[in-house]
Amino acid sequence: MTTHYLELNVQPDPETSAAQLLGALYGRLHIALVQQQRSDIGISFPHYSLNPRGVGNVLRLHSSESTLRSLMQEDWLKGMRDHVRMTDIKPVPEHAQHCTFRRKQFKTNAERMRRRRMKRKGETAGQATEAIPATIERKPNLPYVHLRSHSTAQPFCLFIERSTLQEKQEGGEFNRYGLSPDATVPWF
Hints:
InterPro entries: CRISPR-assoc_prot_Csy4, CRISPR-Cas6/Csy4_sf. By secondary structure, the protein is an alpha+beta fold.
């Protein structure tokens, strides 16, 4: 259960935007969660907004007090400390509502999907085009964090969907990005 939280607020400078810093911070958190094999830390973005679309410059971590202390004892913020202001670990406000933050993937590039299909199935370009029409593409309308894959070094957008608010907390596990389709985090 998520009883405590702490906030990491990125501080942009003239050379680096808040979005770039948040992406770097979130990437480091992901690596820390993978290395520590954690599935008990959830995240939220207190400034999450659909209009204008964005996640803001604050990353909030949710878990038990002891779990957050354990995470923060590791030096996963190395190199980011000048760009991040961190709060103390605090208890979640008593009457907070709850919601989920989950990853949402979109089929955004028909040409890339065709190339992949041709490679996987040995099809010609014509066969792949017939199987994957251009109408399959969707324009994402969700906020995202721009990350870089640590396995392929390719940049990608991690689209994040927030659920509607609910009164009751739902338990469960979080993935290595601190996201879950089922487990809720406090929203305040």
